[in-house]
Amino acid sequence: MDNIFEKEFTRDTIFLDRNLITPHYTPKVLPFRDAHIKQVTGILANTLKGQKADNIFIYGKTGTGKTSVTKHVMEQLLNFASGKNIPVLGNYVNCRNHNSKYRVLIKIAKDIYPEENFLGFSAAFVYEKIVDFARKGKQLVFVLDEIDKVKDLDELIYGLTRSNDELQTGGISIIGISNNLMFKDRLDPRTKSSLCEQELVFPPYNASELTEILQQRSTIAFKPGTVDVSAINVAAAIAAQESGDARTAVMLLLRAGEIADTKDSKIVNDVDVKKAKKIVEEEIIFNMVSTLPEQQQLVLYAIAKLSLEKKPMQKITGETEEGILFSGEIYDEYCKISKGLKETTISARWYRQYINELEMYGLIYSTTSGKGFKGQTRLIKLGFEAHKIKNLIERELAG
Fold this sequence. Notes:
single chain; alpha/beta; Rossmann fold; Arc Repressor Mutant, subunit A; three-stranded antiparallel beta sheet; 15 helices; 10 strands
């Protein structure tokens, strides 16, 4: 019998290189981000002159080019420094994977001392090793992507930035990247002043910009003549309307291409994009949930759990409505869950802030109770299937 993969291996495909239309690919040309590239380049150029660069805080919604621009500029910086034999080194840390001060420091130390093993050593020891490396006259630039995922961030940032006071030569600079537009409001004032020496906001892309981005990607990822103009226009329009997120636009075209491939079509059209929309929406939401800080995940978990457990709410008029929750009962449930996990419980003030952010992300809807409800309170409803959100967060917390 033929191997079960034989048919897939020999099947014709409309993709030229599928990897080039995935969100993980960083293109060499980044349209509509020239001003941001120039700004970051200007700040980091000081390291080439033996001076510490200002710390940079970069924020904006998912898919606005923050990480791509930062990686592009860092690659150019390190290539130039290497060619000129200038002691500048860079380090990229995904804080979603390295979500504590200790894990971040270990990641950095292992990269700059590849032959040494730091497991088991204290954070203070690892920190001193990093500072000693800079003390040899080296300018170190640490990129902390999804920086809001670090649990003890104030300690990490304060320690790294204050280390420059001890250095006669060399320096340590930080680039913090966050999707959370309100994140810096949570920082300790000392941390905020040291991290946010320079701030860059990345705006969402509009429909015409997304169209050009997709045209650029489709020419390198798909075989010539296999992507209809209507497919690009619809994918760009959907992404612009939803969020201005280039990642969403790219994923729509990728999934549409896969749908076309499955039915052995030679063309990706707007119908394929519309079919891909539901698949991509679910992927985007799950990715968004998994990138939330742990405490915010617990608030969302409380909403999902109560949505599944609570009976439909009955109004004074006798009507019932499913999935409607009182803000206060969600906070009580969150506190119970948080204490059960031996986590620090956030205050009611920060809880309200988290609810505002979850609504801004489109994960929940809220309204003030009106006619038919007893009393005046904030009513909250989950924007997606409760059991899916609950299961996803349980997997995240277990990991």
